[in-house]
Amino acid sequence: MLKFNVFACCKAVLMHPGPIALALTLTAQCGHAEALERARSLGIPFLGVPGPLNAITDVAGVEVGHTTLIAGEGQLVRGEGPIRTGVTVVHPRGKDSTEAVHGGWFTLNASGEMTGTTWLEERGLIDGPIGITNTHSVGVARDAFVAWMVDQQWPALWHAPVVAETYDGALNDINGQHLKPTHVRQALLNAKTGPVVEGAVGGGTGMVCNGFKGGIGTASRVFSVADQSFIVGVLVQCNYNWGGTDLRLGDRWVAEELPVGQHCYLDPGIAPQNPWFPYCNGATLQQDSPTRDGSIIVIIATNAPVLPHQLKRVAKRPALALGRLGAISNPGSGDIFVAFSTGNRGATDEDRFNSIEQFPNNALESVFRATVQATEEAIVNAMVAAETMIGADGLRVHALPRDQVRDLFSH
Predict the structure, then answer these.
(1) pLDDT tens by residue, 190-210
(2) What is the value of pTM for the model shown?
(3) In this structure, are residues 209 and 382 in contact, taking their beta carbons and an 8 Å threshold?
(4) Residue of 58, 335, 341, 393 marked catalytic
(5) Least confident of 34-43, 277-286, 314-323, 347-356
(6) What angle do CA 267, 241, 85 make, to 5 degrees?
(7) In the annotation, is 333 catalytic?
(8) Torsions phi, psi for 67 (to 5 deg)
(9) Do the beta carbons of residue 179 and residue 69 sit within 8 Å?
(10) 128 near 154, Cβ under 8 Å?
């Protein structure tokens, strides 16, 4: 019999009987986020002016929700665990809306998946929520989104929602496919405006980024054009550059100053199924190299009336933020970006003529700059928020050493 205990902050612990007792944590995005440290509090310099929350939810109407699944420890057993995964959802106009947004997308390196992009490319619209999960749970999340859209009576006979992924198979029993439709629906229902929970939560639970624990991060930038003020908000699922090669923070090379990439297996009594890293105690292990080096998904939101052909240009700009942090987009990295605008409300009806406001092409520089700046900070926020995690086969991935980073930038 399944036991279900509800705690504060939309968190539940599930215990079920069996050969291996598992504690399963389900965490949905709450109405407020705990006051955790963010990148700016460590003294890392960033360009631009953030919005009030410095989050994607600074764009009015945008809601974010997470479901986090954490269970088990020790040896990896397919279908049992350890489980370190989840799903993150973004409602562009809020969960109660059934109106599309203008959108565009770009892939910097295509070793990954983002569903719905062929239809997005064709028509320039995004219907429904946007999701991020692990590589082997894309189908579950996509199907749950379709069911949600049918229930919400989205105005179409068929749906092709946008769901993206990054690979969490180093820390998570990814082949066990533990994400279920009920988990996705929980994130959809509990999505909120306001502060966004960051770090090892939702789809970012089992992710590794720039040589440390990664996950979900967000940031925003305010900009003005022709005496009108606008906002760009960014949310990332950061899982690239596992080794931390050439890491930069705040225009400073730090890969030689921080303990990047020191991932290791704690228990020499467990022979890891994926022997990608050494044992922590130095015991002999025949190592192999990972076939891929993570990925990053970037979701860009703006309230500026940017049209689909312009949003395709905006969606290219996170690549420059990755470069500022030292990334080169490795061959096995799925670096995929999607952008949408909440502007032109009421003007996306495909059955009638619509009067559209278009952002001036020659002022797009301001949107590009805001996107690059917010993406860079969102990635670092993900790293700062994520705590050390131990997962499959006892693999330990350290958190970014916040005190050491603070010391670096205090001089």
Answers:
(1) 999 999 999 999 999 999 999
(2) 0.93
(3) yes
(4) 335
(5) 34-43
(6) 60
(7) yes
(8) -125, 125
(9) yes
(10) yes
- Cα separation, 89 vs 87, in Å, equals 7
Token match 């395709």: residue?
312
CA separation for the pair 370, 386 (Å, rounded): 24
Q: Which of 111, 333, 341, 393 is catalytic?
A: 333
What letter represents residue 12's amino acid?
A: A
Tell me phi and psi for residue 198, to 5 degrees: -120, 170
Q: pLDDT per residue over 3-57, tens digit each?
A: 322 222 333 333 333 333 344 555 554 434 445 799 999 999 999 999 999 999 9
Full set of structural domains in the chain with CATH: 3-349+357-408 (3.60.70.12)
Is-contact 304 367, C-beta < 8 A?
Answer: yes
**Helix, strand or coil, per DSSP, at residue 372:** helix
Give every strand in the sheet of 395-397, ordered side by side.
Answer: 264-265, 395-397, 389-390
Is residue 329 among the annotated active site residues? no
- 118-171 pLDDT per residue, tens: 999 999 999 999 999 999 999 999 999 999 999 999 999 999 999 999 999 999
Contacts of 159 (CB under 8 A, 6+ apart): 127, 128, 145, 146, 149, 150
**Residue 143 annotated in active site:** no
The residue from 111, 137, 220, 295 that is catalytic is 295
